[in-house]
Amino acid sequence: MCSMPDYALNSEVKDLQKRIEDSGIRGGLEYACRSWYKHLTVTNHRTSDVHFALRRFLEKKFMFWLEVLSVLAP
Q1: 19, 25, 27, 72: least surrounded by Cβ within 10 Å?
Q2: What is the CA radius of gyration of the chain?
Q3: b vs e for 3-31, b when ≥16 Cβ sit within 10 Å of the residue's Cβ?
Q4: Cβ proximity of 33 and 65 under 8 Å
Q5: What's the CA angle centered on 10, arms 54 and 68, to 5 degrees?
Q6: How far is residue 11 from each of residues 4, 23, 29, measured CA to CA in Å?
Q7: Within 10 A of 53 (CB to CB), how many other CB atoms are there?
Q8: Neighbouring residues of 10: CB distance < 8 A, sequence distance ≥ 6
Q9: Which residues contact 17 (CB under 8 A, 6 or more apart)?
Q10: What are 28-56's pLDDT values in tens digits?
Q11: Which pLDDT belongs to residue 74?
Q12: How far apart (Å, rounded) are the C-alpha atoms in residues 44 and 9?
């Protein structure tokens, strides 16, 4: 998402903050990545629906989520 160099630690990327800002992570995406579990715990959906959506997310988007969390970590 941030066009990070392969095999580089976040601490080695000199312009990491600029890459984060340019990527559009701040705002809604940041909130969604950090707070999704709060919404999941209060849902009234059937367990099978939530299970299916969570499985689909893990299969298709998990690595993107990890990348976002890694650059947002303090």
Answers
A1: 27
A2: 15
A3: ebeeeeeeeebeeeeebbeebebeeebbe
A4: yes
A5: 25
A6: 11, 18, 22
A7: 13
A8: 4, 16, 70, 71, 73
A9: none
A10: 889 988 888 888 778 777 788 888 888 99
A11: 64
A12: 40
